[in-house]
UniProtKB/TrEMBL annotation:
GO biological process, one term: DNA repair
Source taxonomy: Archaea, Thermoproteota, Thermoprotei, Thermoproteales, Thermoproteaceae
UniProt-recorded name of the protein: Iron-sulfur cluster loop
Any GO molecular function: hydrolase activity
Signal peptide, first to last residue: none
Gene3D superfamilies documented for this protein: Helix-hairpin-Helix base-excision DNA repair enzymes (C-terminal)
Length: 307
């Protein structure tokens, strides 16, 4: 019999749901011109931009290699820099993100775009492959990106997206991130119950620390030994985390997009990996890790473009 790696803590899920209802949660700005096209941008170009950028929106920092750069008066790091560079390209030539162009994309072009004196993105070759795959699949099967989104249900859309390497993750992190962006932009309409959270390192780490997901002892031992978990185990754990946050959403009846934006900001700025800023955390009063004084990080599974 397969060993279950994690279970949901229903009591803690209810506590977290209640705590979130007391906070002022809000959606992020998907029209921030530093990262996203303007409101009056061509609709087709906007679809092209988001499906391409989300396909390559996975970890930019591995180990001590930092993907960071000062642009103007701001310092951009990680995914912020990735999207900032995306908009620099969009502003120069929005047709760069068209399926016709992406399907013939030369990896050296991606290298020149994403690698520089600010520190290279660690896998520009992989991101070039993902972009080419998106372009080839959309061009061959739909002709235009907009036609890919002519679906009767979110399930059909996710099935279509999963045929591309950048969206094949069984936990659907990038698929739900793309859906979220398009909803925020007013380009896609869904029912609240259709939206699941795009599970990444931040949401996983917060779930473990709050205690809404209980890890079995053998998984904790692998994590204590800093073992690189298999893809199969990584998927099982992230599915458990997704189910736990889905339960929080159902209990709280809050906007899933607002919850995701809150958790993502919390994970990037407060509930960080090695030195969490607990004094700034609005959830510390019900956090299992804070109560114990022992802070588990997300499980170790680095070499993936799933998230």
């Amino acid at each position: 019999m397969a060993r279950i790696p994690a279970t949901l803590n229903l009591d803690r899920i209810i506590e977290v749901a209640r705590a979130l209802t007391s906070l002022d949660l809000h959606r992020s700005d998907a029209f921030d011109l530093r990262f996203y096209p303007p409101r009056d941008a061509d609709v087709e170009a906007t679809y092209n931009y988001f499906i391409a950028m989300v396909a390559i929106d996975h970890r930019t920092n591995i180990g001590d290699r930092q993907f960071t750069r000062r642009i103007g008066d701001e310092i951009f790091t990680g995914s912020d820099l990735l999207w900032r560079l995306g908009m620099e390209m969009f502003n120069r030539d929005s047709s760069f993100f068209s399926p016709a162009n992406l399907r013939r994309l030369d990896p050296t072009v991606v290298r020149d775009w994403l690698v520089g004196d600010y520190g290279p993105v660690w896998d520009y070759g992989v991101r070039a492959y993902l972009l080419r795959d998106v372009g080839s699949h959309v061009f061959r099967n739909y002709g235009t990106t907009i036609r890919l989104f002519h679906v009767s249900s979110i399930e059909e859309l996710i099935d279509r997206l999963s045929m591309m390497a950048g969206y094949e993750d069984p936990v659907r992190k990038k698929a739900y991130l793309l859906i979220k962006f398009l909803v925020l932009r007013g380009l896609l309409k869904i029912k609240p119950q259709e939206m699941k959270l795009p599970i990444d390192n931040h949401l996983t780490r917060i779930a473990y620390r709050l205690g809404i997901v209980r890890l079995e002892d053998w998984v904790l031992e692998l994590m204590r030994r800093d073992m690189h978990l298999s893809r199969e185990l990584d998927i099982e754990l992230r599915l458990a985390v997704r189910d736990a946050w889905d339960a929080v959403i159902r209990v709280s009846k809050l906007d899933p997009i607002a919850i995701d934006d809150f958790l993502w900001r919390l994970g990037r700025t407060i509930c960080i990996r090695d030195k969490p800023q607990c004094d700034k955390c609005p959830l510390r009063g019900l956090c299992s890790a804070y109560a114990r004084g022992s802070f588990i990080n997300e499980h170790n599974h680095y070499l993936t473009y799933y998230y």
